[in-house]
Amino acid sequence: MTEGQSFPRSGFSIFVVGALIGAGVALLFAPQSGTETRKLLTKKAKQLRGKVENTFASAQSSIKNRTADPAATVGDGKNVAHTTRTNERAHR
Questions:
Q1: CA–CA separation, 43 vs 36, rounded Å?
Q2: What are the residue ranges spanned by the domains of the chain?
């Protein structure tokens, strides 16, 4: 990539980074003991794992649906482009 361009970021990667930052901040300001903090981290890790699994399953399903019928996907793209052009013309 050239200077000034950034790498595209997916919503999932932003979510993971946010979760890690949040966990770090929580550890720094945690008023509980080490044992309680470890229990909390275990609980949060299990919740995060569940969210990751759900997100992955959803993405996997979406990809399967799109690859199962490429003609429909192309048709959807054409419809979006047509709608966008129509809306742009209406706002001129």
A1: 11
A2: 13-90
Distance CA 10, CA 32 (A): 34
Q: 12 and 22 in contact (C-beta within 8 Å)?
A: no
Which letter does DSSP use for residue 91 in this model?
A: T
b/e per residue, 37-74, with b = 16+ CB within 10 A?
eeeeeeeeeeeeeeeeeeeeeeeeeeeeeeeeeeeeee
- For the chain, 92 residues long, give each residue's pLDDT as a single digit of tens: 445 555 556 788 888 888 888 888 877 776 777 788 788 888 988 888 888 888 888 888 877 776 666 766 677 777 777 788 777 776 65
Q: Is the pTM of this model over 0.70?
A: no
Q: How far apart are CA 2 and CA 6, in angstroms?
A: 9
Under DSSP, the state recorded for 32 is: S
